[in-house]
Amino acid sequence: MDTTVINNFKSEEYQINMGPQHPATHGVLRLLLTIDGEIIKRVEPDLGYIHRSIEKMCERDSYQQIVHLTDRMDYLSSHINNEAVCLTVENALQLEIPERVKVIRTIIAELTRIASHTLWWGVMGMDVGALTTYFYGFRDRELINDIFEETCGARLTMNYNIPGGLMFDIHPNFVKRTKEFIDHFKTKLPEYDLLLSNNIIFRKRMEGIGILSKDDAISFGASGPVGRASGYSCDVRKHHSYSAYDRVTFNEILKTEGDTYARYQVRILEMWESLSIIEQLIDNIPEGEFFTKTNTVIKLPEGEYYQKVETARGELGVYIVSTGTKNPYRMKFRSPGFSNLSLLNHIAVGGKIGDLVATMATLDLVIPDIDR
Amino acid sequence: MTNEALQNLTSSWVPELEFTEEKSQFLNITVQPEQLHSLMTQLKSNSETNFDYLFCLTGMDWGAALGVVYHLESTTHRHQIVVKVKTEDRENPTFDTVCNIWYTAEFHEREVFDFFGIKFNNHPNLKRLFLTEDWDGFPLRKDYVDEINMIIK
Amino acid sequence: MSYFSDIYNGVKTLLTGMSVTGKYFLHSRKGAITQQYPDNRATLQMFERFRGEVVMPHDENNEHRCTGCQKCELACPNGSIEIIWDRQIDPETGKKKKMIDQHIYHLGMCTMCSLCIEACPTDAIKWAQNFENSVYDRTYLTRVLNKPGSKLMPGVED
Amino acid sequence: MNITKNIHEWLFSLMPATTASIVEMVLIAVVYLGIFAVAGLYLVLLERKVAAWFQLRLGPNRVGYQGLLQTMADALKLVSKELTGTIKADKFLYNLAPYFVIITALMAISLFPFTQEFQAFDINIGIFFLIAISSIGVIGILLAGWSSNNKFALIGAMRSGVQTISYELSVGLSLLTMVLMTGSLQLSQIVEVQKHGWLIVQGHIPAVIAFMIYMIAGTAETNRAPFDLVEAESELGAGFHTEYSGMKFAYFFLAEFINMFIIASIATTVFFGAYLSPFGITENIPLLGVFWFLIKTLAIIFLMMWFRWTFPRLRIDQLLVLEWKYLLPLNLMNLIIMALMVLLGLTIQF
After folding, report:
1. pTM of the predicted structure, to 2 decimals
2. Which domain holds residue D3?
């Protein structure tokens, strides 16, 4: 280590490596912490341990093939990632998408959101030391994964969307299973509150730490539950509606506190909203085709296309620059996790190590989403 | 604010801007590197434009030129705009940083530096983000060659 | 007095939490959500659309439906599929015709994206539901899908 | 018990008194080591089973009937594992630390009256000795954290020091509240008093409060969740024993469970009448005392496991706030109330 680094911090401070193998970093995120006793003085994320350069790989792939790469970015909202790319390509080609496809995509996207949030809830509990929540979260998530597996053939990396529609029609059991899940989950979701949300220890640990103001949230590009907990209305489903979101009524959950407990509550309440969206749509899936025929080789017209969608973590942007060939000239994914990570240093400084873990858990980071 | 009004307003601040709406769903502004920072400051601080949300910052390699594309949105007016900046200098491309205007640019600019080798003046912590410090070359440039790791179909 | 009511409310929330876990403790016998793998190997049934690995079904005459059109090879994003083909003389018509020699499938590179199966015009390949894909040597992961001596099912190309 | 008396007489008839007493001590030590090992291993299994039942799982059920031999297999694995450590560790202290923890746990266990006669060491300062011994264990943890030359371990060790010193007060004070009623620190005397009703009944409201405070502080003493800041898996990886492996790790691990057993045993002895049966139903069969003692202890251990698998972990400053702002004032107040009650003769006795 060169001397300048050593001289940079005061004598009481020391540096500690959290990660790349650490239980609280949920993957291979490395945080270089500068600590004074237990108090965090500086957090420097070090990324790239799982970088696969998906953007460069996209430049050599056809548009159908790109879709399956996006499964591997934010693997907890893989369907929504697929949808983002497909919407971009469909808008560029000005394809007319059947209503059935839009509704099915929306239902599965909301199921994905619930699956992602239940996993987050389980892991959130584990990060603050309540290990049992993990299993309760996974119990509910498994039911959604079964629905996915029956319809799409895969539990996590589904690749169910293709430009123009869906790869195949929904399974005949899909509607029945989804309704069963809704009934099941409506009895389990209040338990989440009883077990964790109202717990005095949990609330004392979560309230008033990691505060992010609204202005900072916008400036840091925070999106999803992180932004909404700071009172920043950033739901893409409301502001730039896509698929079937314009035909359902749902509330955008907004909190003004901006602390970790607000972020926690936003996600819990969002699960209720997702349930209501699914309930509105599940009985009204229109009959019809499940895809619009496209050419085998898709060539986008020359130009630039941008599409944003709301994943479970926030706003995912897909930016395609096309020169008219069968591959994109430049493909950029604006991932929500990347922006949400960049504000970690801002909100974690001054807290304790335990606060950092709780704060990081409510940012809900998925490392492949950050690294791409 | 409509695209036309935006065009009229911004061209009154900085005279030599190029505007285009072709082949894109947004109004595209191309700005000279020297005027980038002043234009961005105006776009953010002016109450009529108020672009307070930088939702995407993309490094670009157009073959001859290197550049950065900024996607901006206003959370109050809900209008969007795209600002592009280019340079022909492939050896030492440099722009002014915008991370004192939007905090999120700090990480995004580091990503662009990492993959395109574009430097940003006055950036507080400009170093490699994903790749190791001793990585040779800038992988997302079009002329990057790596015979071992890149599989060309 | 808020000092004591704080303690009271705090203890109450703790007891509520304990009642939730306690309820599951009492129902633990029938409520286990885990699976006893690999004990249940014999009865474990995957969904019909489950993507285990790509296989090429053959009928009882050792005939398959692959014409060697290479659409799956083109559709594959990872290069998991390689088709070795040549032009052979069809014994029936006497004309030279494209025929597959080997349809090679690298399971180790496959990401189960299902694009090859969507691309296949003759439904020659499909998903198998087995998932026990671990082997001791990765060369075993390279598989030849068409059985030796197999030939094209008549009537597929029409 | 007659068996012990017979062995005692037989030994003294066989050899001179000094040799006989040494042999007797060794025998007792071996018996207690056996109890220690079995209790430790089966508490681990119990914890895993209970955790599984809370978490909708089945728990270990492969090795032996319903997994009864699982922890034996684990212990065997740990014994046969290579011992690794860091190069820059302070070797002497690093190797010494696990023994501190395990020996103090072993010493404490010798005091408990499992039945009227099955008690190895009945000194007149019993409770005092227990509190003193159980706080020596923290030295082992501090040494382990400091000597392994790892920052995570050091943070864990420092937290452990803070935590034990604070909660030692509450454990001591809540036991002192009960001692007011017995008038003796000797464990056999404490049990004797409870023949007129368990102390938690005799002392009613203040005794229940003392018991609750003791359970909270006792859980903190053993460094178990929700007070497991010393290990704090999601914050410090493994805390003070990050750099330990194999048998040395097993010592820490076993000691944690033995400490839990000790805390529960103290509660049983002081609050629930040790080996005494409820309402004196089996007083004429003294051997059943072991059964009652273990039943009560296991019930309290189960309560501690229930805490662990339900609650999130506290933060270090909240841990101290809980002790110094809530438990300690309540405890002192409780002590005064109890003293007044004893003075005015308001205790319930049958």
Report:
1. 0.89
2. 1-80
